[in-house]
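Quick board copy: two proteins, each given as sequence then tokens.
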Amino acid sequence: MPLMMKPSKLDQLREMTVVVADTGDIEAIRQYQPIDATTNPSLLLKAAQLPQYEPLLHASIASAKKTSSANQLSDSMDELAVRIGREILTVVPGRVSTEIDARLSFDTIATVERGKRLVERYQEAGVDTDRILLKIASTWEGIRAAELLEKQGIQCNLTLLFGFEQAAAAADAGAFLISPFVGRILDWHKANGGQPDYLPHEDPGVVSVKTIYNFYRQNNYNTIVMGASFRNTGEIEALAGCDRLTISPQLLEELNNDYSELPRSLDPGDTGDSILFNTMNESPFRYQMNSNSMATEKLAEGIRNFVADQIKLENMLQELAN
């Protein structure tokens, strides 16, 4: 009889965690067969530069030109995001996360309206609402926008999440999913007096996600925890058992080529000591965020970077339209 091949760490991870592809590259998604996929302006900018996406760029521009909207560039951006999202959904069996313009991160009503328009575009393209997650930055205004959208049956992914106070507020708002950014938390600690290197279980980003996961399970929150922004496979392995993990193609490949054992690290039946945290209204939330230098700085930086890549993508579309 032939010897049974050992499962890779990626296959072992799939047994305990929903694996999500952190990319807009269809070929990479097809190769690693994740359940879901996530996109953001930075990933869309990379995807838009691939030759196979050029027809989608031209189609998005042509579609926007047919409308009477005063902001055809904005319409082109949304149309492109939806067209790429629809392509991704032909490959993944689950959901795609599509980011709302980060320039609206401090405007609750504008975020809600833009989100509803994105969902309408998906519906017009024949995509069911239950296959879409709207990504919104975890500002106070963004969390409130997610709360309003969730009440209308539109599920949200609260992203750029770095602090426990953001996670607690997101769960209280009834968000479908949060994306804590593991690697960016590590980056901040390394740059601000932390250790030059950390063991995976001591990694500040890993510790943050584990704390949030345990808090959610202890308090019976339904909000899904999806670790994101990984710097190495050690971080991923230290979070094996988390609800979901969104992973770049490079790290998916590393996990797929490693056949050593992957033990479970997070378990809903073993959440450790009780974690106490009171529900906050706006003032204490803002005070807690202001007291958390890491979360404040990384949230602001993340919004700026997403906006910068959004503008680059808009410029690309503008050049093609002229």
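And the next:
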Amino acid sequence: MHAPDGFINAPVSAVVGVAAAGAIAVSLRGARRELEGASRPGAAGSGGERTAPLAGLVAAFIFAVQMLNFPVAAGTSGHLLGGALAAILVGPFTGVLCVSVVLLMQAVLFADGGLTALGVNVTTMAITTTVVAYALFRGLVKVLPRTRRSVTAASFVAALVSVPASAVVFTLLYAVGGTTDVSIGKVATAMVGVHVLIGIGEAVITALTVGAVVAVRPDLVHGARGLTRKLKLRVNGELVDAPDAAEPEPVPAARSPRTVWITGLVTSLVLAGFVSFYASASPDGLEKVAGDHGIDEKAEEHAIAGSPLADYGVEDVDDDRLSGGLAGVIGVGVTVVAGTGVFWVVRRRRAEDTADAASPTRTGV
């Protein structure tokens, strides 16, 4: 769903870009609290070292999986948007930043998604998916039993709904600032229809990933915090729930955050560097709808179309498999470094603010 330059006119793109920048500013403040809350109790000062790399890893993983286009209909493919996955793993504010980092890397390094359309893409792919998915996810986990299976099931539904929601927002933006005279009703029907199918793939990937992390380290999953189960008492030979008593659900054999991080990074590198070669070559949902309905008539060439990494290939490397694999590995590496750096700064700023608030010179003690 990466919109290129020229789909939405300049005034609307500018307004949406300003709104997206405001949402990112709000997310920066919210992410400080989320990263602080993810710090291990009793390990003051170590939270940034543990949570920032994990958040950066989520961004890199989303970048890698977005390279894996999967077929959804004749001549159409889809790929992960990632908002639901990021929100559930690291929190909604941090999730917005994760996907935004991915979109920025894709736009400036790989000429994927227009530069003037970056605000539109952040709005549809980062903000909309994260907000819709996390709101639905929280609503579901409140009414479902507080178990790991419920977290996985809720993540499936939230991810499924977030993708057509993103398509609806793009359609609304196109209705306001579209550069071609196309029936909005037809665009809406086509966009929502194909993105419901893409949403199924998004839901499967999200649920599998969340389920895998919850199985080994539920404490690292933002959406799984506070998982409890009722304490059981045996009464007259039968097990019944003890009223007003709960104990934490047992955590499996612990794996260190470093082990989880290394496993996730290796997985991301393999997906981007090797598995991506087998991804569908068909246009994704937005590209297909744009081509079928004439939305792309005024699409503009990307400003850095001549980039050495444009179109996810390495310039002067003739072997397609090697070229695409190297581009994927470079993308994962750059994204994990950029993401970790952003979240480290955010987390460090939060720690400094907390220290300043507690300082005697600040409090007047």
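Board note added afterward: Confidence is low (pLDDT under 50) at residues 40-49, 244-251.
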